[in-house]
Write a structure and sequence with these properties.
The structure holds 2 protein chains of 2 kinds. Chain A has 3 helices and 13 strands, in the order βββαβββββαββαβββ. Chain A is an alpha+beta fold. The N and C termini of chain A lie far apart (about 45 Å). Chain B has 2 domains: about 1-105, no CATH class; about 110-175. Helix content of chain B is about 50%, strand content about 10%. Chain B has 10 helices and 4 strands, in the order βαβαββαααααααα. In chain B, the strands form 2 sheets. Chain B has a two-stranded parallel sheet. Chain B has a two-stranded antiparallel ribbon with strand order 3-4. In chain B, strand 3 and strand 4 (about 55-60) form a beta hairpin. The interface between A and B is large, with 54 and 73 residues.
């Protein structure tokens, strides 16, 4: 199967990886997988930050053909409850945060932190306003 | 904070005209909109000194020019904001914890997929493939039909009549009396 260069849109950034696309499946080597979502292959399973997930024995999103280990990041993400939208035609995959993770963060009532630029490109981070009230107002030109 | 896929090109003129003393940010990829599951504008969230949400997402106009849509005297809302600014946690408009949780806009799996699909559509549009973006914008709209953000942003990027066969006025009319904004409940 031919290798393709794919743009992966992650919750907070976009990366370019090389993989093999089959429909919406995107098969990556462990090194590319680490770049597309921060997953690291360890003896205990796939790990990201403090979380390690054992790979289910029948996982359809892992394959090992004579030592050539690949993980389908679409299958893995969906297994983790993360939504995936893909345009194989244009080689773009979009992987969002799991709905449950977003909901849990909101239920904690701690405002999700973020950093956004202003018109001059200066970055502003919500948590840097601790000690002051913040009136967060979303508007749009449309 | 402007929710605008075209970023400064779309929001810049408004920010320059208002010339605000407060930070005025641009959320070009709907990152914050997604984290708070915002579905329309204007939407405000009150966040206290410890970074806690004390009033979740709600419609927040500064005046009554859109009262036809808001069905609410926004001068009362402004008074509530000023009261909170003065009195903080003592303000009656700071909701109790139970009311805060009840009012949260929590995303479902469909909403999360809608947001990921919208992000894909935005990317296709901004990298010069606007026609390829349209089916993904439509899919995002179908997955989260209560999001006016996904509708109106997509329409604004292109010819809504041509690619979506609709426009804002027609969609509002289709509400047939149902409110465009979730009615504001000040409490307090």
């Amino acid at each position: 199967m031919a290798s393709v260069s794919v743009t992966v849109l992650l919750p907070d950034r976009a990366v370019t990886v090389t993989g093999e696309a089959e429909g919406e499946d995107l098969w990556l080597t462990p090194a590319e997988l680490a770049r597309a979502g921060g997953w690291e292959l360890k003896p205990e399973g796939l790990c990201r930050d403090a979380l390690c997930v054992p790979i289910p024995p029948a996982a359809s999103w892992v394959r090992n053909r004579s030592g050539d280990l690949k993980v389908d990041v679409t299958g893995l993400s969906r297994y983790m409850g993360q939504p995936v939208a893909a345009s194989p035609e244009y080689a773009v995959w979009s992987i969002g945060p799991a709905a449950e993770d977003v909901a849990d963060r909101l239920r904690s009532l701690e405002a999700p932190d973020f950093t956004l630029p202003d018109l001059e490109g200066r970055a502003h981070t919500l948590s840097s306003f601790r000690g002051r009230k913040v009136f967060l107002l979303a508007w749009a030109s449309w | 904070m402007a929710l605008d896929s075209a970023g400064a090109a779309a929001a810049g003129e408004f920010i320059r005209a208002a010339n605000p003393t407060h930070p005025s940010l641009i959320d070009a990829h709907y990152e914050v909109a997604r984290a708070f599951n915002m579905v329309n504008v204007p939407t405000a969230v009150w966040i206290d000194e410890e970074g806690r949400i004390v009033r979740p997402n709600e419609m927040a106009f500064a005046d009554n020019r859109w009262i036809e849509y808001t069905k609410f005297d926004m001068t009362r809302y402004l008074e509530a904001v000023r009261d909170w600014a003065r009195r903080g946690a003592q303000s009656p408009y700071v909701l109790d914890v139970k009311a805060r949780r009840t009012r949260l806009s929590l995303p479902t799996a469909e909403h999360a997929l809608a947001a990921a699909t919208f992000r894909l559509a935005e990317h296709l549009h901004e990298t010069g493939r606007p026609e390829a973006a349209v089916p993904f914008f439509k899919r995002a709209q179908a997955l989260q039909p209560d999001s006016w953000c996904f509708k109106r942003q997509a329409w604004a990027l292109t010819d809504a009549e041509k690619y979506y066969g609709t426009n804002f006025q027609r969609e509002v009319k289709a509400l047939a009396g149902r409110p465009y904004y979730t009615p504001l409940d000040l409490g307090g």
